[in-house]
Amino acid sequence: MPPAVQSPPVDRGRVVAWALWDWGSAAYNAVILTFVFSVYLTDAVGDGRPEASAALGYAIGAAGLLIALLAPVLGRRADAAGRRKLATGVWTGLTIVTMAGLFAVRDDAGYLWLGLVLLGVGSIVFELASVSYNAMLSQVATPGTIGRISGFGWAMGYLGGIVLLLVVYTGFIAGGDGGQAGFLGVPTGDGFHIRLVALVAAAWFLLFALPLFLAVPEVAPAPDRPARLGVAGSYRALVADLRTLYRNAPHTVFFLGASALFRDGLAAIFTFGAVLAVGVYGVGAGDVLLFGVAANVVAALGALAGGRVEDRVGPKPVIVTSLLGMIAAGVVLLFVSGPGAFWVFGLLLTLFVGPAQSSSRTFLARLATPGREGELFGLYATTGRAVSFLSPALFGLSVTVFGAQRAGIVGILVVLAAGLLALWPVRPPQMSSGNGNSATP
Q1: pTM for the full model?
Q2: How confident is the model at residue 352 (pLDDT cuts 50, 70, 90)?
Q3: Nearest 10 degrees: CA dihedral of 189, 194, 197, 202?
Q4: Which residue ranges does UniProt annotate as crossing the membrane (predicted)?
Q5: If we measure between CA atoms, which residue out of 5, 362, 316 comes closest to residue 151?
Q6: Measured between alpha carbons, how far is 362 from 370 in angstroms, rounded to an integer?
Q7: Which DSSP string do the residues of 116-139 spell out, in sequence order?
Q8: What is the largest CA-CA distance in the chain?
Q9: DSSP designation for 405
Q10: What is the average pLDDT across 378-394?
Q11: CA distances from 263 to 63, 174, 322, 345, 359 (A)
Q12: How far apart are CA 143 and CA 431, in angstroms?
């Protein structure tokens, strides 16, 4: 697949408007899925029973399967019809609705399945929104600035997570043992303070997603494709395009496979990081949120720095260096103990997560044919979901085989190493010699 010819340069305002969606999306990633509501759902609503955690895994896994089936076709149809921004708006709106709906999930076991359904549906529509949103990167960047703009977006996401986590922790969660929580004195009975956090997160995402739809224009319909295909026709065309893609640009297919592996390892770092911090390194339960804030700061700085380096050397060296850095930090974590060591080497590891995520996105954007970015990012989401069981399975297997929770790190390192080895022979995209004229933050 030839390197993408980007849209005409755009101004700083459009870049910021695009990146604010990343800032707002932290409400779903950081608050709903990672640090707050999923914990409330399993520990409070599910009474801390293992069955509740297993049910959450099944719900998210089922959502991942549906995403794998839907993402490439829906991304393709949005490209062809010139409705990429519309698709982002629809899926974002549905995500916000599911987030607000979580307010109905009371601290009672009878509400567990309602929470699981809302989280599962929310995961699906959020991932579909991300497919179209990532495809819009080509509308706010030139070949010479795509790396730093992607890095800026990732950094905004991390920073948005930091700010919102601090807001909800200090305002709604801290000191919740006496019937009221946070400096706002929110009642904690029936999980009201956590349910209110879900509404705050939904409003946050809505507020910061709006600039994207006001400032960034819609993409033009693809000139060489029908405006609309049926579902069956979309899948037939998808299979044909995959065959063509492999014949004409096999390294694009190879990258999709390699990135699926190492992105699963990146996801596992956040999924199991808090568990390991408390269970292995003795980090206090209250300090885990503080570590999460610090980790987001470090990852944001890494994404910003990596984006600028990428515009000079290309995305592949940044990804390779980041994976090597994470593997090295993970190996050290296998042998050290104590909260201090976890803070040092855990933050060192997260320093490399941001550049790996950002440059993986721009690697694909540089490969995409103009007008078909949504389809390719749909495949990106599909391949990622296709192997999303690997890190959790290897984490659990390592713990079982070695009889120690710390050994779960080995499973994550194996997936990261496999992704690195798969990426090594992949030919990187061509770099533009020009820097373009678009303003970047």
Answers
A1: 0.74
A2: very high
A3: -110
A4: 20-41, 53-74, 86-105, 111-131, 152-174, 194-216, 253-282, 288-306, 318-336, 407-426
A5: 362
A6: 14
A7: HHHHHHHHHHHHHHHHHHHHGGGG
A8: 64
A9: G
A10: 70
A11: 17, 33, 12, 20, 11
A12: 7
